[in-house]
Design a protein that fits this description.
Blueprint: E1 3-4, E2 7-8, H1 9-28, H2 30-48, H3 56-81, H4 89-93, H5 98-116, H6 120-130, H7 136-143, H8 147-165
Antiparallel strand pairs: 1-2
Helix pairs in contact: 1-2, 1-3, 2-3, 3-6, 5-8, 6-8, 7-8
Amino acid sequence: MFRTNGRSIGELFERNKRDLLDCLTRRVGYEDAFDLLQETFVRMLRRREAGPIADEDAYLRTTAINLARDFSRHSKCMAKHVAPGDIPAEIAETGLDPSQVCEAKESARLLYAAMKGLPPKCREVFILRRFHDLSPDEIAQRLGISRNMVLKHLRLALERCHAALD
């Protein structure tokens, strides 16, 4: 079992999960709080490989707050680029009939819901690729993950977006 400063990750999880989940739920909502809680402990596991952590509880709380802040920032960015109900200018200018416009709105809504339902890291990778036009290598470097992991996240995001539109 993984241990940090003499305590297992399981012990840390049991001791901190309620407070962290409450904190994350207040900041990002119930649906996304569990994913961020999991990511908080994944980061704890990665961090422990670098050496001991002086105050594990404080580290967990700070990590959770930073993840929630990043999540909120990326959600705002996503909402700025893809707003449900908005009709893209290309569609509005074509003079489509109302049923086609309604279908386009519904597709945009479904795509937005699919993107919102992605795990936080997967959503972040997708946004950086799709809306910021970063290469997989640039994304990997920015997020501190491997290029293969970036490609896996992109594959998952595309699968879920395509499934939502089918």
